[in-house]
Specification:
single chain, mainly alpha, Arc Repressor Mutant, subunit A, 2 domains, 8 helices, elongated
């Protein structure tokens, strides 16, 4: 299933939830939501998350405002901006570790920098939250396979 199709399904399921709750204080038109979702899909495809990025910088890049972007990410992904970016980064490194043997020899600090994390601690925390394992233990397990 294509990434855009998945995003459309997320949008429509979110739309149905919104119809049930009617608690959305920030009214965003469906057209804007779909446009931002399409731009987010492009951002993901181009791996823009591998560079340090803030909500404000991404909103500017996507030509939307930060409040809209934040709300769309919250509604469509059921997570905040930081979790959205961190999950993209961790999913990326997990795929790369399976295909690029040279990454297995990297330090945790080098991986954190390569993924756009501001520091090693935030990478390790996000990695453990996502996988349940510390990155150093995960790397060691790959080296001993």
């Amino acid at each position: 299933m294509s990434r855009l199709l998945k995003k459309l399904l997320l949008f429509f399921s979110s739309f149905l939830r919104k119809e049930k709750s009617k608690t959305n204080s920030l009214k965003i038109s469906d057209a804007i939501i779909l446009t931002v979702m399409e731009k987010l899909s492009d951002f993901e495809d181009k791996q823009g998350f591998l560079k340090p990025i803030t909500l404000h910088k991404l909103a500017k890049k996507l030509k939307t405002n930060p409040k809209y972007l934040s709300r769309i990410i919250n509604d469509q992904y059921q997570k905040n901006f930081s979790s959205y970016i961190n999950d993209l980064r961790i999913n990326h490194v997990l795929k790369e570790l399976n295909t690029d043997n040279s990454l297995k020899a990297c330090t945790v600090k080098a991986l954190a920098k390569k993924l756009g994390f501001g520091n090693t601690e935030s990478f390790a925390k996000a990695f453990k939250k996502h996988t349940g394992v510390n990155p150093s233990n995960y790397l060691n397990s790959l080296l001993h396979k």
